[in-house]
Amino acid sequence: MTRIAVINPNMSVGFTEKVGAQARRIVAAGTEVMALNPQFGPASIEGYYDEAFASVGLLAAMRGLEADGASGGKISGYVVACFDDTGVDAARCLTKAPVMGLCEAALRFAAIVASRFAIVTPMAVSVRPLEHLVSKYGASSQCVVRAAGVRTLDFDGENADMAYLALKMSAENCLAEDGAEAIVLGCAGMTDIAERLQAELGVPVIDGVSAAVKLIEAMGMLGLQTSKAGAYASPPVKTYDGIFAAFAPVE
């Protein structure tokens, strides 16, 4: 059986319920999905500061799942359900299972269906971090990043309609002014609006949650694992002090 752990590295339970529901809707019969939050971290991830703290909670949650897996409940792959790809590289050092972030997965999908595309993210503070990720994944010549000017948490609750309209307007501007041929949703909390936006815009709209889940599902079915031959090798055994003592690498 393929078992996918979808971890939302912030503390928004509403977002976690959204991404879990979407993941379960699109996986094949026989694929098991668990969706969870860490036990500690920021309410949302909006920029570098939040990302630093959220990474620790993500790794703590993964350590628990890896320990459980050693006793029988092995995880086939992990999805980090944040478009900042929070802690993904560190997570790949923690497990042999494949780990995928939303931004990387969405960009891989977008490049297949469009020659130029745009990421629309909620807040301006996230634009530069996402531009750095776009460069890291080799898509700078194809992708532009724009902000809708709303808070991440606006997509969950009474402000959801307002946030959707702001997102749609920003996406329309990308199509008209940036030459974008497809739109990438730059937040996990947008996963439930991808189909609606695609129908209204008339171009492909890529949801990172769906893209990451399907990639991880395929990798799990193929039995692919994270290479431990270089950058993603398990961290060397050493002492971690203070509040991080429990995170010390072990053999």
From TrEMBL:
Which GO molecular function terms does the record list? amino-acid racemase activity
Question: Cross-referenced InterPro entries, in alphabetical order?
Answer: Asp/Glu/hydantoin_racemase, Asp/Glu_race, Hydantoin_racemase-like, Iso_Racemase_Enz_sf
Do you know which SUPFAM superfamilies this protein is assigned to?
Aspartate/glutamate racemase (SSF53681)
Per the record, the similarity remark reads: Belongs to the HyuE racemase family.
**Name of the protein described by the UniProt record:** Hydantoin-racemase
Per the UniProt record, the source organism is Thalassospira xiamenensis M-5 = DSM 17429
